[in-house]
User: Which sequence fits this backbone?
């Protein structure tokens, strides 16, 4: 899958190369294909004939609840917690959709780790057990122990500094973003608009620890670039902005890296008559505050080139869970633990009575051979087969398409 390196495209010629990047990343594995193909998941979901999914309570759901979208997040007070870290698809919808999406992601991760179908079955049972624990008054809410890989990731997150973040994200702690594999040049109009965003004096009391609760925090844009990041989001506006900031209250200074991301219409279905913000960035912000407050409480919205964006500082503690090769035991523990993260995010939006009704619904339709609802298991089996076939077809087309020159983006 190697492509010939080339120079970064001009700002008005990004689309073709970004589309090629996306096809390239999705051809790596079926797990990568699932992560980058939210549309196919909801296309399957919209074809509801013969499927009887439970209609859970109307709450904010992640909408794209795959393994890579969960991980450690820092808050403005310096604390760390594992939460949902990508809310592009968040809507007021059916919590069952998050469970199915997470189950599909775990099943494809197991496949990429060459784990047997028996282990995948056990993972889904652990997924349900961990999720249901969050709705049980007799148990500590979300009390599943952290698997070793999560402990290692959280420990690493806690020890990271600005220099670690800069080295990882922009490969340089100096006030410069190097144009190349990850970053492309931006137009004068883009740069002008970005600078205007950070001229507002009250921006930093919302998004940065240094500027918390101080509207006099001043900032200077040191550099900005178009950021080639993610998979399903490739093709949307995405910028990295390096700032020099000074807190007018206590005189603290420092640098921070800002992530600006375009918000577009969600493909995840919302419940009819749901009262959500009309703007896409405002929808993402509200969903983040409900599902992942460590993230949502340090986000704001804005406009760039007439398009809706949300803005946050990237903290050194913000990391994703990286799965390389799972053992059987790790797979089972990971499924249960991640389910508790999603379960806690759902449960805190429900009163006790609603929690009890939702748990009762989850316990219906189980057989002797599987400790999980049949609707969940059958959905995951169908989706795995659906995505496996689509993945192979994607790879066939990818291997024969005319090569689009790419920077070696990995």
Assistant:
């Amino acid at each position: 899958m190697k492509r010939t390196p080339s120079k970064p495209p001009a700002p008005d010629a990004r689309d073709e190369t970004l589309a090629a990047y996306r096809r390239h990343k999705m051809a790596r594995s079926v797990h990568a294909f699932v992560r980058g193909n939210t549309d196919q998941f909801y296309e399957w979901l919209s074809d509801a004939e013969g499927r009887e999914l439970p209609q859970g309570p109307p709450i904010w759901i992640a909408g794209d609840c795959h393994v890579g979208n969960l991980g450690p997040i820092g808050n403005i007070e310096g604390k760390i917690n594992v939460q949902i870290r990508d809310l592009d698809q968040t809507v007021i919808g059916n919590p069952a959709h998050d469970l199915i999406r997470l189950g599909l992601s775990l099943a494809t991760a197991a496949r990429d780790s060459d784990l047997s179908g028996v282990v995948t079955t056990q993972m889904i049972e652990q997924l349900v057990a961990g999720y249901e624990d969050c709705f049980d008054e007799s148990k500590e809410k979300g009390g599943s122990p952290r698997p070793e890989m999560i402990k290692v990731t959280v420990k690493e997150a806690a020890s990271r500094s600005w220099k670690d973040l800069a080295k990882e994200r922009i490969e340089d702690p100096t006030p410069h973003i190097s144009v190349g594999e990850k970053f492309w040049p931006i137009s004068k109009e883009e740069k002008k608009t970005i600078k205007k965003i950070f001229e507002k004096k009250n921006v930093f009391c919302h998004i940065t620890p240094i500027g918390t609760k101080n509207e006099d925090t001043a900032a200077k844009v040191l550099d900005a670039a178009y950021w080639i990041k993610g998979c399903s989001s490739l093709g949307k506006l995405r910028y990295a902005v390096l700032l020099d900031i000074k807190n007018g209250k206590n005189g603290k200074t420092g640098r921070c890296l800002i992530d600006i991301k375009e918000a577009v219409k969600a493909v995840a279905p919302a419940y009819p008559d749901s009262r959500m913000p009309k703007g896409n960035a405002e929808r993402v912000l509200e969903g983040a505050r409900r599902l992942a407050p460590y993230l949502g409480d340090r986000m704001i919205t804005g406009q760039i080139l007439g398009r809706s964006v949300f803005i946050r500082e990237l903290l050194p503690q913000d990391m994703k869970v990286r799965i390389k090769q799972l053992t059987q035991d790790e797979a089972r523990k990971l499924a249960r633990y991640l389910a508790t993260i999603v379960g806690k995010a759902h449960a805190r939006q429900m009163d006790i009575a609603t929690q009890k009704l939702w748990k009762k619904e989850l316990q219906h339709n189980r057989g002797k051979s599987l400790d999980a609802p049949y609707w969940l298991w059958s959905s995951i089996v169908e989706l795995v087969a659906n995505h496996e076939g689509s993945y192979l077809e994607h790879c066939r087309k990818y291997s024969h398409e005319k090569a689009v020159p790419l920077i070696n983006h990995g």
